[in-house]
Structure prediction request, 281 residues.
Amino acid sequence: MLSELPINPSRLLDTINRMPSRDILWSGREVHLLRKNTFLLQLFEVCFSIFDHADGPGSLATRMVLVSGWFAPAAIPISLLSLAAQKVPKKHNGTQFWRKLLHSLTCGFSSSYSKRSEVEASSMLLRFNLARSSTKEGYFHFNELIKVYARKRGVTGAANAMVQAVASRGSLSLHSEHVWAACFLLFGFGNNPKVVELRVSELLCLVKQVILPLAIWTFVTFSRCGAALELLRVCTDALEAADQAFLTPVEKWLDKSLCWKPIQTNAQLNPYLWEELALSR
Prediction:
């Protein structure tokens, strides 16, 4: 950071110490890791604030870090990471005090960098040591502390964005770990609860494009029958739950032939979608 900003070490240290801690839920297995590294967490927030000041609220570099926590513990393809980050809603949090402080801290920095492209945002993450290059070209590694903090920080839509990115651009042969991670977020396995909720139409699309190919590929390529069957089981459970929701009465009315008639269920309201759901099960 000292090589990137016109600031001396004592002022940087003072800025980090004055950075307020995020209001996050201190629970779970990772709580000890976070509690003993509070200074680093404040340093992360300073970096995010610098990125956002230079590139506007919700910079691509910041969102790339925050969405990284939902990927598998493996090298992450930068293109997939960037796509997921672009799907995370921008949100600006910052008081007038911190905006003034960061303006003085980053004087000359923001003028040197315009809007960040994927390449520029990736370069910033490397230069600020929030990510490190992988031996595989075009891939990043993130420290486990950064990934844990990204998950605990609870950015709205980050997990959902990861699932959507993997569904649209993920490759079984190249990104199988991250495809499995998306399935864990969507269905939950064992004692792990599901994190992502999709609309029925999105779930059906994911089943056809990701879940079924993954189950077949897992069995054919690795002969992992148990893993493939478990994936199909939790997928079927999700489809059955969606089917039950479709059969639940809803309060919606349609005007037909100048008469108001009640639509009893979502299945009646969306017959084609319900048929697709039944066929998928």
